[in-house]
Amino acid sequence: MTAAEQRHEVRLTVNGVPRRAVVPARRLLSDFLRHDLRLTGTHVGCEHGVCGACTVLVDGRAMRSCLQFAVSVDGAEVTTVEGCLRPDGSLGPVQQAFQDCHGLQCGFCTPGFVTTITAYLDDRPDDHPDPNAEEAREAIAGNLCRCTGYQNIVAAVQRAAEIRRADRAEASQ
Amino acid sequence: MSTRIFGEPIPRREDPRLLSGQGRYLDDLGHGALAAAFVRSPHAHARIVDIDVSDALEVEGLVAIYTHEDLPGQVGHPLPLLIPHPTLTQARTPYPLAKDEVNHVGEAIVMVVATDRYLAEDACQRIRVDYDFLPPVVGIEQSRAADLLVHDDVPDNVSAHMLQEVGDAPAAIDAAPHRLHLDLDIERSASMPMEGKGVYARWDADDRSLRVYTSTQASTSVRAAIAARLGLPLDRVEVVAPDVGGGFGVKIMHPWPEEVLVPWASITLGREVTWAEDRREHFVSSAHERAQQHQVDVGFDDDGRLLGLDVTFWHDNGAYTPYGIIVPIVTSTQLLGPYKPGAYRVEFFSLYTNTVLVTPYRGAGRPQGCFVMERTMDAIAAYLGLDRTTVRERNFIQPEEMPYDHGLVFQDGRPLVYDSGDYPATLEKLKKLVGWDEFEVFREQARADGRRVGIGIGCYVEGTGPGPYEGGFVKVETDGTVIVATGLTSQGQGHQTAFAQVVAEELGVPVDKVVVTTGDTRRFKYAVGTFASRAAVMSGNAVALATRKVREKALRIAGDALEADPADLEIVDGVVQVKGTPGATIPLSTVAVLSNPLRYAFDEETKRATQFAAPADVDKPPIEEGGEPGLEATAYYSPPRSTFANGMHAAIVETDPETAEIKILRYCVVHDCGTLINPRIVEGQIHGGVAQGVGGALYERMVYDESGQLLNASYMDFLMPYATEVPNIEIDHLETPSPLNPLGLKGAGEAGVIPGSAVLSSAIEDAEGIRITRMPISPSELYHLRQKESTTR
Ligand code: FES
Ligand code: FES
């Protein structure tokens, strides 16, 4: 027998909920989220950092969870696609925009786009409240989708910004 | 009907689930299962001398290691030849685990099962395989030369040789006033769905039954294959396609080695076993497509009308032919597009190489055929000094000539007969959309600014919706929910929405009452699969036919209850009512209760169906003769032959005079897929197809070196388009209903991808004035073409 792998305790806040698991040092954050925490919304399309399907927010920044070890984000605050819903459980602005614009087909790449766009729109102080089509396209230029040809995803970025603006307007009333 | 739902661009029913992370893809299942991993050949062609697993036995968490020798009987035999063809005389299919010899990098040799994937891969790394190297055959040229062989017993590397002829093309070409010869090549690409393949198997030893989840386009056929291979009664095997993260053809191939091995291991070990393909595995052990070399001889008159067309081509089928020769058959028939070829002769050779096997990728031989025909049209136009659209127009099959019989046999074994289509009208629309006639003005303006632009066109006809059949099951539940099942699978085409629209419209219920299941053999056992743009045509019509049966039954039962003639009844918003008589109504949910005469009630509502609930005709049986309980029906749709969709694309490109960078300025699509169920879904299909067409034309290729190593087996190096590479796509529709099926549907799944290389080569050629004869084309290739051209001038 080879020596059993040394295991480490990892504590994170995921979608606002404190979570912990004991895993080997080489456990990828993507596998940790998917298999240890059973949050399977985060998908793995390449495991080499190119497709963006595994994108999650780590302390508010979009990161590729296939390129991180779970142990390296110990103590962080992580948001996955499951955490992009509204507090009442309905679709969040970015998710709603995807449905409105038919921005997904098979849906496999979609969680990575939802998190990426969420970070893009949230990216303060460099906020992007109203991206034009070109900026919207640029915002998603690091994520691969094999189904949609991106046109409706570009539209969804703009639609999401619109929903958020409406939300804010409502909140400030 | 209150509001029409068929034909409306309604939002998809599947979206909220998929958007909130609640999708269930293959690797989201089976958290507690054992994980499989494979030792795959690092060599393109070799004999296996020895497999030493001793080091791997040390690995913590190891459960089992299997090689070919461990597989009993049928399990280890070569995988089936799915589509035999009389000309496929030298079919070879792979073993699930290689026996003695490997024929491409990535071929599976050893299967390891461990408590998790990390550990299974640890064990794989400790397994040593000794090889005797054999010289590999890479590429069409080397295979044609046949100095080296892929399979010892296939002396010329030719798996199939096929010839079809209508008239005497060589004679017609000889006699023609003008003749041209063209050599046209297309390189390898692949489906590359974002989710790889995957299999998860659960053996229930008490029930002696097996459930297999697999990321497939053909769950019913996988089920049959597994039952046959593993020697299980068919009714003890269930196969479910969960949410599937894209297919594009590669998942229509089956059974993959893993689809046999993972279930077998699950039974053997009495444990759940799962395997999810990683990206590199997908590159080297799934399937590729597209590589073909073509020679064209064409004869035509002074107007550019075809008199004779003679095409010979060589198709690279990779190391094995489990899916038969569908791809080259499709090329050989579909290259004719919307044209009358005059006399036609087409011959192809399907060739073995020591590379990943070849099975259909969206388009399935059509992109190559379209490229060949459209390049030929452009060459004729250039030769005669005619506008490219004029030459096309003159060769079009006219609407009044429909149905048009080409006199050839299509991929479904049926005659190649176009059912309908209006090609002149399609072209007219496209010219308007892209501004064909005004382009020269734009070119002049651009030229004045030192810019180089060109316009291109590509026309295609696509045989869609081939048989043999699909079925649909429709049931109205006692709560008014309408349950629909069809056997074919979904990989993002929005079937749960589109089929719900068909049923809602046919039955007269709100669409949100309709729940559709696809690709689950527990729910529907007879099906063929999702390929060849057939799902909407086949299952759309099947569920429509089943719904019509349900409606008829509902009206009959409601007629009894309302004491009305069923002919006077209609169903609106889930309520049966007497036309023009307000008040006389009965909800479908109640009809469903009444449809099932009960002895025992289980709630308030079902009391109505018990024997003392209402006066009955005591001389008649509670269920009429030949009738069945329940408000449900099953129906099948089986077409006489394929229905033919068509479309035309145009693109405007700009090429950088210095760097030869190629930029698509506009991309226009006119598309006719008959009646539309949901225009938004159809447009999405076109967008995705165009993106793959652009990828195939400008970026994607499988780069094998001379030793058979795939040099770009990652997303880093295989250049799939990102958002920045795909142009905005402008779409216009034509709706010529198919006369072949009740809903008038034609398929739409592959249309977008077909003319990509044809259109973009046409546009680049127009911009550069240099003949483009092979695709894809990169800036550096264009740059070299320019240099070559300037030295030969
Ligand atoms: S899976 Fe992480 S970038 Fe592709
Ligand atoms: S929706 Fe299928 S990969 Fe993007």
What average pLDDT do the residues of chain B reach? Answer: 94
Biggest sheet features of chain B: 7 strands, mixed
CATH class of the largest domain in chain B: Alpha Beta
Residue share in helix of chain B? 25-40%
Biggest interface pair, counts = A-B, 61 and 59 residues
What this model shows, in words?
Chain A is of the alpha+beta class and 173 residues long. Chain A folds into two domains: 7-83, Beta-grasp domain (Ubiquitin-like (UB roll), Roll); 93-172, [2Fe-2S]-binding domain (DNA polymerase, domain 1), CATH 1.10.150.120. Chain A is built from five helices and five strands. Chain A has a five-stranded mixed beta sheet with strand order 2-1-5-3-4, with helices on both faces. The N and C termini of chain A lie far apart (66 Å). In chain A, 56% of the residues are buried. The model of chain A has no long low-confidence stretch (mean pLDDT 94). The longest helix of chain B has 28 residues, at 535-562. The termini of chain B are far apart. Chain B is globular, with a radius of gyration of 28 Å. With 793 residues, chain B is α+β, with helices and mostly antiparallel strands. Chain B folds into three domains: 32-134 and 197-244 and 251-285, Aldehyde oxidase/xanthine dehydrogenase, a/b hammerhead (Aldehyde Oxidoreductase, domain 3); 377-464 and 640-792, Aldehyde oxidase/xanthine dehydrogenase, molybdopterin binding domain (Aldehyde Oxidoreductase, domain 4, 2-Layer Sandwich); 467-637, Aldehyde oxidase/xanthine dehydrogenase, molybdopterin binding domain (Aldehyde Oxidoreductase, domain 4). Chain B contains 18 helices and 29 strands. The mean pLDDT of chain B is 94. Chains A and B meet through helix 2, helix 3 and helix 5 of A and helix 1 and helix 16 of B. The structure holds FE2/S2 (inorganic) cluster (2 copies). One FE2/S2 (inorganic) cluster is lined by residues 44-47, 49-54, 64, 66 of chain A. One FE2/S2 (inorganic) cluster sits between chains A (104-110, 145-148) and B (194, 246, 492).
